[in-house]
Design a protein that fits this description.
Largest sheet: 4 strands, mixed
Strand order of the largest sheet: 1-4-3-2
Number of strands: 8
CATH topology: 2,3-Dihydroxybiphenyl 1,2-Dioxygenase, domain 1
Radius of gyration: 15 Å
């Protein structure tokens, strides 16, 4: 199985620059209507303009732009050093929700809101 997680964004170019800088990745696809980052062999992160999904799926879909700033998804990134990713996100305009700290489920994790209000988590497992 290959998973594509697609985030609806207000400004594709601005969000693509944010994720390129935070993840230190170049998109594998960057065309009008979709930017994609290959997170692993089995997971692609996509960025689609909010207006694009409405055009694609029609009027039955609630307008994603009406939920702007309301958390609609959490993307949990397991990385070697979450502090680096957390700080890069803050430096690029993310808002801190919860600092990097030990969590009761066995990870060290910090939470931010990206430019569109999506919750991003940068975490690593606590070594035993």
């Amino acid at each position: 199985m290959i998973v594509h997680t697609i985030l609806y964004v207000a400004d594709q170019k601005m969000s693509a620059e944010f994720y390129s800088n935070v993840l230190e990745m170049t998109p594998i696809l960057d065309v009008p209507g979709m930017t994609e980052f290959k997170l692993s062999e089995k997971h692609i992160l996509g960025l689609m303009p909010e207006a694009g999904i409405k055009k694609l799926l029609g009027q039955e879909l609630p307008d994603p732009s009406q939920a702007s700033g309301i958390p609609r998804v959490e993307v949990y990134f397991k990385v070697d050093d979450p502090k680096i990713f957390f700080q890069r996100a803050l430096n690029r305009g993310a808002k801190e929700l919860s600092s990097i700290q030990k969590r009761n489920w066995g990870d060290i994790a910090g939470y931010v809101l990206d430019l569109d209000g999506h919750v991003l988590v940068f975490a690593t497992s606590i070594e035993t």
